[in-house]
Amino acid sequence: TRHILSAAMPWFLAGIASYYLTAWICLEPVWKRKILNLVISCAILRIFFLSDTPGAYNEFIWILTLLVISFRMLPALAVQRFKAGKQD
After folding, report:
1. What is the pTM of this model?
2. How big is the chain by its Cα radius of gyration, in Å?
3. What is the pLDDT of residue 87?
4. CA distances from 5 to 15, 27, 50, 62, 63 (A)
5. pLDDT tens, 13-52?
6. Which class for 68: exposed (0-12), middle (13-18), buried (19 or more C-beta within 10 A)?
7. CA angle 8, 10, 13 (to 5 degrees)
8. Would you call 56 helix, strand, or coil by DSSP?
9. What distance in Å separates the CA atoms of residue 61 and residue 80, rounded to the nearest whole number?
């Protein structure tokens, strides 16, 4: 069970990260910034799918977990920009 969960963990983290990054893109009030956020999000999500070998991410899965935890702030930053009146 531990091996199955460790092999699937990058995929679970990628799903959670894509949720936060999609919310970040959708809540951003400025279109130019939305496009920039989309490019950044695609580059970040690429990190989660670099290798399809089981156990390839075991060395730095904690770094990916910290990244996903830090992505929780991104939608709040977009909402804060919207409340500040930064619109097209």
Report:
1. 0.88
2. 15
3. 78
4. 15, 32, 18, 14, 17
5. 999 999 999 999 999 999 999 999 999 999 999 999 988 8
6. buried
7. 110
8. coil
9. 30
